[in-house]
Automatic annotation (TrEMBL):
One of its GO terms (biological process) is carbohydrate metabolic process. NCBIfam families: more_P_ylases. Its EC number is 2.4.1.1. Pfam families: Phosphorylase. The keyword Kinase does not apply. Phosphorylase is an important allosteric enzyme in carbohydrate metabolism. Enzymes from different sources differ in their regulatory mechanisms and in their natural substrates. However, all known phosphorylases share catalytic and structural properties. Keywords: Carbohydrate metabolism, Glycosyltransferase, Pyridoxal phosphate, Transferase. It catalyses: [(1->4)-alpha-D-glucosyl](n) + phosphate = [(1->4)-alpha-D-glucosyl](n-1) + alpha-D-glucose 1-phosphate. It comes from Gimesia chilikensis. GO terms for molecular function: glycogen phosphorylase activity; pyridoxal phosphate binding. It is an enzyme of class 2 (transferase). Belongs to the glycogen phosphorylase family. The lineage of its organism: Bacteria, Pseudomonadati, Planctomycetota, Planctomycetia, Planctomycetales. The gene is malP_2. This is glycogen phosphorylase.
Length: 573
Protein backbone atom coordinates (compact mmCIF):
# COMPACT_ATOMS: atom_id res chain seq x y z
CA UNK A 1 0.00 0.00 0.00
CA UNK A 2 1.20 3.49 -0.62
CA UNK A 3 1.09 5.89 2.24
CA UNK A 4 -2.09 7.56 1.07
CA UNK A 5 -3.96 4.24 0.77
CA UNK A 6 -3.42 3.36 4.38
CA UNK A 7 -6.28 3.74 6.81
CA UNK A 8 -5.75 6.91 8.85
CA UNK A 9 -6.16 6.73 12.62
CA UNK A 10 -6.87 9.81 14.76
CA UNK A 11 -5.57 9.21 18.29
CA UNK A 12 -7.22 11.45 20.91
CA UNK A 13 -5.72 11.82 24.37
CA UNK A 14 -6.06 14.50 27.06
CA UNK A 15 -2.33 14.17 27.72
CA UNK A 16 0.55 13.22 25.44
CA UNK A 17 4.24 13.24 26.40
CA UNK A 18 5.87 14.54 23.22
CA UNK A 19 9.17 15.99 24.34
CA UNK A 20 10.94 16.04 27.74
CA UNK A 21 10.73 19.83 27.78
CA UNK A 22 7.01 19.97 26.98
CA UNK A 23 5.02 19.47 30.22
CA UNK A 24 1.89 18.30 28.36
CA UNK A 25 1.49 15.11 30.40
CA UNK A 26 1.04 14.15 34.03
CA UNK A 27 2.21 10.56 34.16
CA UNK A 28 1.67 7.07 32.83
CA UNK A 29 -1.29 7.85 30.56
CA UNK A 30 0.51 10.66 28.73
CA UNK A 31 3.78 8.75 28.48
CA UNK A 32 1.90 5.78 27.02
CA UNK A 33 0.15 8.06 24.51
CA UNK A 34 3.50 9.50 23.40
CA UNK A 35 5.13 6.06 23.23
CA UNK A 36 2.18 4.83 21.15
CA UNK A 37 2.56 7.63 18.61
CA UNK A 38 6.35 7.20 18.50
CA UNK A 39 5.92 3.50 17.74
CA UNK A 40 3.24 4.21 15.12
CA UNK A 41 5.67 6.59 13.43
CA UNK A 42 8.42 3.92 13.45
CA UNK A 43 6.03 1.36 11.96
CA UNK A 44 4.70 3.72 9.31
CA UNK A 45 1.14 3.39 10.64
CA UNK A 46 -0.77 6.45 9.39
CA UNK A 47 -1.82 8.21 12.55
CA UNK A 48 -2.44 11.73 13.75
CA UNK A 49 -2.48 12.66 17.45
CA UNK A 50 -4.91 15.16 18.98
CA UNK A 51 -4.56 16.75 22.44
CA UNK A 52 -4.76 20.10 24.27
CA UNK A 53 -1.84 22.53 24.32
CA UNK A 54 -1.60 22.80 28.15
CA UNK A 55 0.21 26.14 28.18
CA UNK A 56 0.86 25.91 31.91
CA UNK A 57 1.60 22.18 31.83
CA UNK A 58 0.65 19.86 34.67
CA UNK A 59 2.73 21.27 37.54
CA UNK A 60 6.28 21.41 38.85
CA UNK A 61 6.56 19.77 42.25
CA UNK A 62 8.58 21.18 45.10
CA UNK A 63 8.73 19.69 48.59
CA UNK A 64 9.27 21.85 51.68
CA UNK A 65 11.46 20.78 54.59
CA UNK A 66 8.58 18.73 56.03
CA UNK A 67 8.03 16.91 52.74
CA UNK A 68 4.79 18.76 51.92
CA UNK A 69 4.17 19.16 48.19
CA UNK A 70 3.75 22.53 46.49
CA UNK A 71 2.61 22.93 42.90
CA UNK A 72 3.99 25.54 40.55
CA UNK A 73 2.89 26.34 37.00
CA UNK A 74 5.20 25.24 34.19
CA UNK A 75 4.90 27.63 31.27
CA UNK A 76 6.94 26.48 28.26
CA UNK A 77 8.25 27.86 24.98
CA UNK A 78 5.54 26.72 22.60
CA UNK A 79 7.06 28.21 19.47
CA UNK A 80 10.30 26.37 20.07
CA UNK A 81 8.64 22.97 19.65
CA UNK A 82 5.42 23.55 17.74
CA UNK A 83 4.30 25.49 14.69
CA UNK A 84 0.93 27.19 14.43
CA UNK A 85 -1.45 25.84 11.81
CA UNK A 86 -3.51 28.13 9.58
CA UNK A 87 -6.88 26.87 10.83
CA UNK A 88 -9.42 27.97 13.37
CA UNK A 89 -12.80 26.52 14.38
CA UNK A 90 -15.53 27.40 16.85
CA UNK A 91 -16.95 25.23 19.59
CA UNK A 92 -20.11 26.19 21.46
CA UNK A 93 -20.01 26.23 25.24
CA UNK A 94 -22.91 27.67 27.23
CA UNK A 95 -24.32 28.98 23.94
CA UNK A 96 -21.28 31.11 23.17
CA UNK A 97 -18.74 30.31 20.47
CA UNK A 98 -15.21 29.61 21.64
CA UNK A 99 -12.50 30.01 19.02
CA UNK A 100 -10.00 27.19 18.85
CA UNK A 101 -6.72 27.25 16.98
CA UNK A 102 -4.15 24.51 16.55
CA UNK A 103 -0.43 23.90 16.78
CA UNK A 104 1.48 21.04 15.25
CA UNK A 105 4.27 19.00 16.81
CA UNK A 106 6.06 16.51 14.59
CA UNK A 107 7.30 13.17 15.88
CA UNK A 108 10.39 11.96 14.03
CA UNK A 109 10.63 8.19 13.74
CA UNK A 110 13.75 6.06 13.82
CA UNK A 111 13.46 5.76 10.03
CA UNK A 112 12.81 9.40 9.35
CA UNK A 113 8.99 9.26 8.99
CA UNK A 114 7.10 12.12 10.57
CA UNK A 115 3.88 11.82 12.50
CA UNK A 116 1.85 14.97 13.25
CA UNK A 117 0.26 15.78 16.59
CA UNK A 118 -2.34 18.55 16.83
CA UNK A 119 -2.42 20.64 20.04
CA UNK A 120 -5.62 22.66 20.52
CA UNK A 121 -5.41 26.17 21.92
CA UNK A 122 -8.12 28.65 23.00
CA UNK A 123 -5.75 31.46 23.96
CA UNK A 124 -6.72 33.78 21.11
CA UNK A 125 -8.18 37.24 20.66
CA UNK A 126 -11.96 37.17 20.55
CA UNK A 127 -12.28 34.71 23.44
CA UNK A 128 -13.03 35.97 26.95
CA UNK A 129 -10.21 35.86 29.49
CA UNK A 130 -11.76 32.82 31.14
CA UNK A 131 -12.14 30.98 27.83
CA UNK A 132 -8.54 31.76 26.93
CA UNK A 133 -7.42 29.73 29.97
CA UNK A 134 -9.33 26.60 28.95
CA UNK A 135 -6.33 24.90 27.37
CA UNK A 136 -3.86 25.98 30.08
CA UNK A 137 -3.80 23.38 32.76
CA UNK A 138 -3.86 19.63 32.56
CA UNK A 139 -6.35 18.23 35.11
CA UNK A 140 -6.58 21.69 36.70
CA UNK A 141 -9.69 23.44 37.93
CA UNK A 142 -13.05 21.96 38.88
CA UNK A 143 -15.55 19.67 37.16
CA UNK A 144 -16.90 22.51 35.05
CA UNK A 145 -13.40 23.42 33.78
CA UNK A 146 -12.72 19.75 33.07
CA UNK A 147 -15.95 19.34 31.12
CA UNK A 148 -15.15 22.45 29.05
CA UNK A 149 -11.73 20.98 28.27
CA UNK A 150 -13.30 17.71 27.19
CA UNK A 151 -15.70 19.58 24.91
CA UNK A 152 -12.75 21.38 23.32
CA UNK A 153 -10.83 18.12 22.93
CA UNK A 154 -13.71 16.06 21.54
CA UNK A 155 -15.73 18.48 19.43
CA UNK A 156 -12.89 20.93 18.73
CA UNK A 157 -10.50 18.10 17.86
CA UNK A 158 -12.77 16.58 15.19
CA UNK A 159 -13.58 20.03 13.73
CA UNK A 160 -9.91 20.98 13.49
CA UNK A 161 -9.13 17.69 11.74
CA UNK A 162 -11.91 18.39 9.22
CA UNK A 163 -10.70 21.98 8.78
CA UNK A 164 -7.27 20.56 7.98
CA UNK A 165 -8.87 18.56 5.19
CA UNK A 166 -9.01 15.18 6.92
CA UNK A 167 -12.22 13.68 5.62
CA UNK A 168 -10.29 10.43 5.33
CA UNK A 169 -10.06 9.25 8.93
CA UNK A 170 -11.09 5.62 9.25
CA UNK A 171 -10.65 5.20 13.01
CA UNK A 172 -10.95 7.46 16.02
CA UNK A 173 -9.07 6.05 18.99
CA UNK A 174 -10.21 7.39 22.37
CA UNK A 175 -7.32 7.00 24.76
CA UNK A 176 -9.33 7.06 28.01
CA UNK A 177 -12.84 8.49 28.38
CA UNK A 178 -11.75 12.16 28.36
CA UNK A 179 -12.02 12.19 24.57
CA UNK A 180 -15.43 10.55 24.34
CA UNK A 181 -17.26 13.70 23.21
CA UNK A 182 -15.63 13.28 19.82
CA UNK A 183 -18.44 10.80 19.34
CA UNK A 184 -21.02 13.56 19.58
CA UNK A 185 -19.42 15.42 16.69
CA UNK A 186 -19.32 12.21 14.65
CA UNK A 187 -23.00 11.55 15.42
CA UNK A 188 -23.93 15.04 14.25
CA UNK A 189 -21.84 14.61 11.10
CA UNK A 190 -23.54 11.31 10.34
CA UNK A 191 -27.02 12.76 10.85
CA UNK A 192 -26.18 15.75 8.71
CA UNK A 193 -24.86 13.56 5.90
CA UNK A 194 -28.21 11.75 5.92
CA UNK A 195 -30.08 15.06 5.80
CA UNK A 196 -31.40 14.82 9.34
CA UNK A 197 -31.12 17.43 12.07
CA UNK A 198 -30.96 14.90 14.88
CA UNK A 199 -28.97 11.69 15.15
CA UNK A 200 -30.64 8.30 15.50
CA UNK A 201 -29.61 4.69 16.01
CA UNK A 202 -28.37 4.38 12.43
CA UNK A 203 -25.89 7.15 13.18
CA UNK A 204 -24.88 5.37 16.37
CA UNK A 205 -24.07 2.28 14.29
CA UNK A 206 -22.01 4.36 11.87
CA UNK A 207 -20.04 6.01 14.64
CA UNK A 208 -19.42 2.76 16.46
CA UNK A 209 -17.87 1.37 13.32
CA UNK A 210 -15.24 4.11 13.27
CA UNK A 211 -14.34 4.32 16.97
CA UNK A 212 -12.35 2.33 19.45
CA UNK A 213 -11.73 2.94 23.13
CA UNK A 214 -8.98 2.07 25.57
CA UNK A 215 -9.85 2.16 29.26
CA UNK A 216 -6.92 2.65 31.63
CA UNK A 217 -7.87 2.21 35.24
CA UNK A 218 -10.10 0.19 37.54
CA UNK A 219 -9.99 3.04 40.10
CA UNK A 220 -13.46 4.71 40.17
CA UNK A 221 -11.99 8.25 40.52
CA UNK A 222 -10.23 7.66 37.20
CA UNK A 223 -13.58 7.61 35.36
CA UNK A 224 -15.04 11.03 34.60
CA UNK A 225 -18.68 11.53 35.56
CA UNK A 226 -20.56 14.80 35.17
CA UNK A 227 -23.97 15.64 36.67
CA UNK A 228 -26.60 16.04 33.97
CA UNK A 229 -27.50 19.60 34.96
CA UNK A 230 -23.85 20.64 34.56
CA UNK A 231 -23.76 18.95 31.15
CA UNK A 232 -27.06 20.55 30.08
CA UNK A 233 -25.80 23.95 31.13
CA UNK A 234 -22.33 23.65 29.60
CA UNK A 235 -23.04 21.78 26.40
CA UNK A 236 -26.39 23.59 26.01
CA UNK A 237 -27.98 20.71 24.13
CA UNK A 238 -31.03 18.93 25.40
CA UNK A 239 -31.41 16.74 22.32
CA UNK A 240 -28.61 14.36 23.26
CA UNK A 241 -30.42 13.05 26.29
CA UNK A 242 -33.48 12.16 24.27
CA UNK A 243 -31.42 9.35 22.84
CA UNK A 244 -30.92 7.59 26.15
CA UNK A 245 -29.19 4.65 24.49
CA UNK A 246 -25.96 6.58 24.29
CA UNK A 247 -25.61 9.51 26.65
CA UNK A 248 -27.66 8.99 29.75
CA UNK A 249 -26.61 6.87 32.65
CA UNK A 250 -28.35 7.20 36.00
CA UNK A 251 -28.54 10.97 36.21
CA UNK A 252 -25.03 11.64 35.01
CA UNK A 253 -22.88 11.68 31.93
CA UNK A 254 -20.31 8.96 32.44
CA UNK A 255 -17.52 9.38 29.90
CA UNK A 256 -16.45 5.75 30.17
CA UNK A 257 -19.95 4.52 29.29
CA UNK A 258 -20.24 7.07 26.52
CA UNK A 259 -16.99 5.79 25.01
CA UNK A 260 -18.14 2.17 25.46
CA UNK A 261 -21.47 2.90 23.77
CA UNK A 262 -19.78 4.44 20.76
CA UNK A 263 -16.96 1.96 20.12
CA UNK A 264 -16.80 -1.25 18.14
CA UNK A 265 -13.60 -2.33 19.84
CA UNK A 266 -12.77 -1.77 23.51
CA UNK A 267 -9.73 -2.89 25.43
CA UNK A 268 -8.06 -2.84 28.82
CA UNK A 269 -4.29 -2.46 29.05
CA UNK A 270 -3.16 -5.83 30.44
CA UNK A 271 -4.70 -9.30 30.55
CA UNK A 272 -5.80 -8.96 34.15
CA UNK A 273 -7.11 -5.44 33.54
CA UNK A 274 -9.27 -6.81 30.71
CA UNK A 275 -10.83 -9.28 33.18
CA UNK A 276 -11.31 -6.63 35.85
CA UNK A 277 -12.89 -4.23 33.35
CA UNK A 278 -15.33 -6.88 32.11
CA UNK A 279 -16.56 -7.32 35.68
CA UNK A 280 -16.60 -3.62 36.44
CA UNK A 281 -18.03 -2.10 33.25
CA UNK A 282 -21.27 -3.99 32.95
CA UNK A 283 -24.12 -2.63 30.84
CA UNK A 284 -26.59 -0.58 32.86
CA UNK A 285 -29.56 -1.26 30.63
CA UNK A 286 -30.94 -3.75 28.15
CA UNK A 287 -29.61 -1.93 25.07
CA UNK A 288 -25.98 -2.70 25.50
CA UNK A 289 -23.56 -5.53 25.53
CA UNK A 290 -19.87 -4.78 25.92
CA UNK A 291 -17.06 -6.96 24.76
CA UNK A 292 -13.84 -5.88 26.38
CA UNK A 293 -10.58 -7.31 25.12
CA UNK A 294 -7.08 -6.50 26.30
CA UNK A 295 -3.91 -5.28 24.65
CA UNK A 296 -1.06 -5.17 27.11
CA UNK A 297 0.82 -1.88 27.25
CA UNK A 298 4.42 -1.39 26.24
CA UNK A 299 7.09 1.30 26.15
CA UNK A 300 8.92 2.89 23.24
CA UNK A 301 12.32 1.26 23.52
CA UNK A 302 14.43 3.91 21.85
CA UNK A 303 12.94 6.53 24.18
CA UNK A 304 13.60 4.58 27.36
CA UNK A 305 16.96 2.87 26.80
CA UNK A 306 19.70 4.68 28.76
CA UNK A 307 22.54 5.79 26.48
CA UNK A 308 24.90 3.09 27.78
CA UNK A 309 22.34 0.35 27.18
CA UNK A 310 21.42 1.73 23.76
CA UNK A 311 25.13 1.58 22.74
CA UNK A 312 25.33 -1.95 24.06
CA UNK A 313 22.34 -3.03 21.95
CA UNK A 314 23.72 -1.16 18.92
CA UNK A 315 26.90 -3.16 19.25
CA UNK A 316 25.47 -6.64 19.86
CA UNK A 317 21.95 -6.47 18.42
CA UNK A 318 21.99 -3.84 15.66
CA UNK A 319 18.55 -3.12 14.24
CA UNK A 320 16.81 -3.33 17.64
CA UNK A 321 15.20 0.09 17.15
CA UNK A 322 13.55 -0.89 13.87
CA UNK A 323 12.72 -4.40 15.09
CA UNK A 324 12.27 -4.50 18.85
CA UNK A 325 11.97 -8.29 18.90
CA UNK A 326 15.73 -8.47 18.20
CA UNK A 327 16.23 -7.95 21.92
CA UNK A 328 15.04 -11.56 22.29
CA UNK A 329 18.72 -12.43 21.70
CA UNK A 330 20.01 -10.43 24.68
CA UNK A 331 21.23 -13.65 26.33
CA UNK A 332 24.10 -13.60 23.84
CA UNK A 333 25.45 -10.33 25.27
CA UNK A 334 28.40 -11.00 27.62
CA UNK A 335 27.36 -10.47 31.22
CA UNK A 336 30.29 -8.22 32.05
CA UNK A 337 29.26 -5.83 29.27
CA UNK A 338 25.71 -5.63 30.60
CA UNK A 339 27.18 -4.90 34.02
CA UNK A 340 29.43 -2.13 32.67
CA UNK A 341 26.50 -0.49 30.90
CA UNK A 342 24.39 -0.76 34.05
CA UNK A 343 27.11 0.76 36.21
CA UNK A 344 27.36 3.69 33.80
CA UNK A 345 23.60 4.28 34.08
CA UNK A 346 23.77 3.84 37.85
CA UNK A 347 26.60 6.35 38.15
CA UNK A 348 24.49 8.99 36.41
CA UNK A 349 21.65 8.45 38.87
CA UNK A 350 23.97 8.47 41.86
CA UNK A 351 25.56 11.73 40.71
CA UNK A 352 22.12 13.30 40.44
CA UNK A 353 21.02 11.99 43.86
CA UNK A 354 24.18 13.24 45.53
CA UNK A 355 24.05 16.61 43.79
CA UNK A 356 20.46 17.23 44.76
CA UNK A 357 20.42 15.81 48.28
CA UNK A 358 23.98 15.38 49.55
CA UNK A 359 22.97 11.93 50.82
CA UNK A 360 26.26 10.28 49.86
CA UNK A 361 24.91 7.42 47.76
CA UNK A 362 27.52 4.93 46.63
CA UNK A 363 27.68 2.93 43.39
CA UNK A 364 28.49 -0.43 44.99
CA UNK A 365 25.54 -0.43 47.34
CA UNK A 366 22.34 -2.30 46.44
CA UNK A 367 19.82 0.31 45.33
CA UNK A 368 16.03 0.02 45.18
CA UNK A 369 13.90 2.41 43.13
CA UNK A 370 10.27 3.35 43.60
CA UNK A 371 8.70 6.14 41.56
CA UNK A 372 5.05 6.57 40.71
CA UNK A 373 2.13 8.84 41.31
CA UNK A 374 1.79 9.28 45.05
CA UNK A 375 -1.66 7.90 45.71
CA UNK A 376 -3.02 5.56 48.34
CA UNK A 377 -3.42 2.35 46.32
CA UNK A 378 0.21 2.42 45.14
CA UNK A 379 1.29 2.01 48.79
CA UNK A 380 4.66 3.76 48.60
CA UNK A 381 5.01 3.19 52.36
CA UNK A 382 4.92 -0.61 52.16
CA UNK A 383 8.72 -0.87 52.31
CA UNK A 384 8.70 1.03 55.62
CA UNK A 385 5.91 -0.98 57.18
CA UNK A 386 8.37 -2.43 59.72
CA UNK A 387 11.35 -0.03 59.81
CA UNK A 388 13.28 -2.03 62.41
CA UNK A 389 13.08 -5.16 60.28
CA UNK A 390 14.28 -3.31 57.20
CA UNK A 391 17.21 -1.81 59.09
CA UNK A 392 18.12 -5.17 60.51
CA UNK A 393 18.01 -6.76 57.11
CA UNK A 394 20.23 -4.02 55.69
CA UNK A 395 22.72 -4.40 58.54
CA UNK A 396 23.15 -8.10 57.78
CA UNK A 397 23.94 -7.61 54.11
CA UNK A 398 25.93 -4.37 54.34
CA UNK A 399 23.76 -1.41 53.41
CA UNK A 400 20.94 -0.56 51.05
CA UNK A 401 19.87 2.62 49.30
CA UNK A 402 16.37 3.60 48.26
CA UNK A 403 15.32 6.30 45.80
CA UNK A 404 11.73 7.53 45.81
CA UNK A 405 10.02 10.01 43.51
CA UNK A 406 6.49 10.86 42.47
CA UNK A 407 3.93 13.65 42.41
CA UNK A 408 0.56 13.60 44.14
CA UNK A 409 -2.41 15.01 42.24
CA UNK A 410 -3.02 18.56 43.57
CA UNK A 411 -6.37 17.50 45.08
CA UNK A 412 -5.09 14.22 46.55
CA UNK A 413 -4.44 15.10 50.21
CA UNK A 414 -3.88 11.48 51.13
CA UNK A 415 -1.24 11.20 48.42
CA UNK A 416 0.52 14.29 49.75
CA UNK A 417 0.52 12.80 53.24
CA UNK A 418 2.12 9.63 51.85
CA UNK A 419 5.02 11.66 50.45
CA UNK A 420 5.39 13.41 53.78
CA UNK A 421 5.34 10.13 55.66
CA UNK A 422 8.26 8.76 53.62
CA UNK A 423 10.06 12.06 53.83
CA UNK A 424 9.81 12.11 57.60
CA UNK A 425 10.83 8.49 58.02
CA UNK A 426 13.98 8.69 55.98
CA UNK A 427 16.34 10.02 58.64
CA UNK A 428 15.35 7.34 61.13
CA UNK A 429 16.50 4.70 58.63
CA UNK A 430 20.12 5.85 58.75
CA UNK A 431 22.83 4.69 58.67
CA UNK A 432 21.94 1.25 57.29
CA UNK A 433 19.27 2.40 54.86
CA UNK A 434 19.88 5.61 52.94
CA UNK A 435 16.66 7.04 51.58
CA UNK A 436 16.11 9.97 49.27
CA UNK A 437 12.89 11.44 47.85
CA UNK A 438 13.65 13.25 44.58
CA UNK A 439 11.43 16.17 43.61
CA UNK A 440 9.52 16.57 40.38
CA UNK A 441 9.31 13.08 38.91
CA UNK A 442 9.08 13.51 35.14
CA UNK A 443 10.20 11.98 31.87
CA UNK A 444 13.91 12.76 32.38
CA UNK A 445 13.98 11.62 35.98
CA UNK A 446 12.10 8.46 35.01
CA UNK A 447 14.85 7.69 32.47
CA UNK A 448 17.54 8.08 35.11
CA UNK A 449 15.68 6.08 37.74
CA UNK A 450 14.46 3.12 35.71
CA UNK A 451 17.96 2.53 34.33
CA UNK A 452 20.04 3.54 37.34
CA UNK A 453 18.68 1.45 40.24
CA UNK A 454 19.41 -2.25 40.77
CA UNK A 455 15.83 -3.37 41.39
CA UNK A 456 12.53 -1.67 40.54
CA UNK A 457 9.99 -1.94 43.34
CA UNK A 458 6.23 -1.89 42.80
CA UNK A 459 3.67 -2.40 45.55
CA UNK A 460 0.12 -1.59 44.39
CA UNK A 461 -2.97 -2.99 46.06
CA UNK A 462 -4.40 -5.53 43.55
CA UNK A 463 -6.29 -5.33 41.29
CA UNK A 464 -5.96 -1.55 41.04
CA UNK A 465 -2.82 -1.33 38.90
CA UNK A 466 -4.21 -1.56 35.37
CA UNK A 467 -0.84 -2.18 33.77
CA UNK A 468 2.09 -0.04 34.94
CA UNK A 469 4.84 0.74 32.47
CA UNK A 470 7.80 1.91 34.53
CA UNK A 471 8.78 -1.72 35.25
CA UNK A 472 8.93 -2.28 31.48
CA UNK A 473 11.38 0.64 31.16
CA UNK A 474 13.46 -0.93 33.92
CA UNK A 475 13.44 -4.36 32.23
CA UNK A 476 14.68 -2.81 29.00
CA UNK A 477 17.66 -1.47 30.95
CA UNK A 478 18.35 -4.86 32.53
CA UNK A 479 16.75 -3.86 35.85
CA UNK A 480 14.56 -6.64 37.30
CA UNK A 481 11.30 -5.87 39.10
CA UNK A 482 10.29 -6.87 42.59
CA UNK A 483 6.56 -6.38 42.43
CA UNK A 484 3.17 -7.37 43.68
CA UNK A 485 1.48 -9.59 41.07
CA UNK A 486 -0.80 -7.08 39.41
CA UNK A 487 -1.08 -5.35 36.03
CA UNK A 488 1.61 -6.24 33.48
CA UNK A 489 3.75 -8.08 36.03
CA UNK A 490 1.35 -11.04 36.02
CA UNK A 491 2.45 -11.53 32.42
CA UNK A 492 6.06 -10.38 32.81
CA UNK A 493 7.17 -12.16 35.98
CA UNK A 494 9.07 -15.42 35.65
CA UNK A 495 10.06 -15.99 39.24
CA UNK A 496 13.81 -15.75 39.80
CA UNK A 497 14.33 -15.31 36.04
CA UNK A 498 13.00 -11.84 35.11
CA UNK A 499 12.55 -10.66 38.71
CA UNK A 500 10.45 -11.60 41.73
CA UNK A 501 6.82 -11.54 42.81
CA UNK A 502 5.65 -10.18 46.14
CA UNK A 503 3.17 -12.96 46.52
CA UNK A 504 2.03 -15.52 49.04
CA UNK A 505 0.09 -18.41 47.66
CA UNK A 506 -2.95 -19.54 49.57
CA UNK A 507 -3.15 -16.66 52.04
CA UNK A 508 -6.28 -14.64 52.43
CA UNK A 509 -6.97 -11.34 54.12
CA UNK A 510 -10.00 -9.71 55.59
CA UNK A 511 -9.09 -6.12 54.84
CA UNK A 512 -6.53 -3.86 53.20
CA UNK A 513 -4.61 -3.38 56.43
CA UNK A 514 -4.14 -7.11 56.85
CA UNK A 515 -3.09 -7.38 53.24
CA UNK A 516 -0.54 -4.61 53.80
CA UNK A 517 1.05 -6.56 56.64
CA UNK A 518 1.14 -9.78 54.58
CA UNK A 519 2.64 -8.01 51.58
CA UNK A 520 5.25 -6.25 53.70
CA UNK A 521 6.26 -9.53 55.28
CA UNK A 522 6.59 -11.14 51.87
CA UNK A 523 8.57 -8.18 50.56
CA UNK A 524 11.10 -8.43 53.40
CA UNK A 525 11.42 -12.20 53.02
CA UNK A 526 12.04 -11.96 49.30
CA UNK A 527 14.62 -9.22 49.73
CA UNK A 528 16.35 -11.12 52.50
CA UNK A 529 16.30 -14.62 51.04
CA UNK A 530 16.46 -14.08 47.30
CA UNK A 531 17.23 -10.63 46.03
CA UNK A 532 19.95 -9.15 48.18
CA UNK A 533 22.10 -12.30 48.66
CA UNK A 534 22.06 -12.83 44.92
CA UNK A 535 23.11 -9.24 44.26
CA UNK A 536 26.04 -9.25 46.66
CA UNK A 537 27.17 -12.87 46.50
CA UNK A 538 26.27 -14.41 43.15
CA UNK A 539 27.09 -11.87 40.52
CA UNK A 540 26.94 -14.36 37.61
CA UNK A 541 23.42 -15.42 38.54
CA UNK A 542 22.49 -11.76 38.92
CA UNK A 543 23.76 -10.97 35.42
CA UNK A 544 21.61 -13.79 34.00
CA UNK A 545 18.55 -12.17 35.56
CA UNK A 546 19.47 -8.83 34.02
CA UNK A 547 19.86 -10.48 30.60
CA UNK A 548 16.53 -12.28 30.96
CA UNK A 549 14.74 -9.06 31.86
CA UNK A 550 15.88 -7.67 28.52
CA UNK A 551 15.43 -10.84 26.47
CA UNK A 552 12.03 -11.91 27.76
CA UNK A 553 10.42 -8.64 28.72
CA UNK A 554 11.86 -5.79 26.62
CA UNK A 555 11.39 -7.87 23.46
CA UNK A 556 7.66 -8.09 24.22
CA UNK A 557 6.54 -5.21 26.48
CA UNK A 558 7.19 -2.50 23.91
CA UNK A 559 4.82 -0.23 22.00
CA UNK A 560 5.99 -1.65 18.67
CA UNK A 561 4.34 -4.98 19.51
CA UNK A 562 1.44 -3.12 21.12
CA UNK A 563 0.67 -0.89 18.12
CA UNK A 564 0.82 -3.96 15.86
CA UNK A 565 -1.88 -5.52 18.02
CA UNK A 566 -4.00 -2.37 17.76
CA UNK A 567 -3.58 -2.51 14.00
CA UNK A 568 -4.75 -6.13 13.91
CA UNK A 569 -7.59 -5.87 16.38
CA UNK A 570 -8.82 -2.28 16.31
CA UNK A 571 -7.66 -0.29 13.30
CA UNK A 572 -7.61 -2.32 10.11
CA UNK A 573 -10.40 -4.82 10.60
C1 LIG B 1 6.56 5.63 32.88
C2 LIG B 1 6.12 6.77 33.70
C3 LIG B 1 4.97 6.67 34.49
C4 LIG B 1 4.12 5.41 34.56
O1 LIG B 1 4.71 4.45 35.39
P1 LIG B 1 3.84 3.44 36.26
O2 LIG B 1 4.62 2.19 36.27
O3 LIG B 1 2.52 3.28 35.58
O4 LIG B 1 3.71 4.06 37.59
C5 LIG B 1 4.58 7.76 35.23
N1 LIG B 1 5.28 8.91 35.21
C6 LIG B 1 6.40 9.04 34.47
C7 LIG B 1 7.14 10.34 34.48
C8 LIG B 1 6.85 7.98 33.69
O5 LIG B 1 7.94 8.11 32.93
Amino acid sequence: MTHSDRPLVAYFSMEIALHPKMPTYSGGLGILAGDTLRAAADLGVAMIGVTLLQRQGYFAQSLDSSGWQYENPMPWEIGQYCSELPVQVDVEIENRPIHVRAWKYEIQSCRGNRLPVILLDTDIAGNSDWDRRLTDQLYGGDQHYRLCQEIILGLGGVRILRALGHQDITRFHMNEGHAALLGLELLDESAQAAGRSQFNSQDVQNVRHSCNFTTHTPVPAGHDRFPLDLVQHTLARSDIFENHEVFCCEGELNMTYLALNLSHYVNGVARKHGEVSRKMLVPRDQYHHYEIDHITNGVHLETWAAPALASLFDHYLPGWREDNSSLRSALSIPGEDIWKAHQAAKQKLIDQVNASSGTGFDINTFTLGFARRATAYKRANLLFHDPARLKNLARQVRNIQVVFAGKAHPHDEQGKHLIQEIFQQKDSMLPEVKVVYLENYDWELARLLTSGVDVWLNTPLPPLEASGTSGMKAALNGVPSLSVLDGWWIEGCVEGVTGWAIDHVGESYHNDQERLAHDANCLYETLENSVIPLFYQQRDAWLKIMAHAIALNASYFNTQRMVQQYVLKAYYD
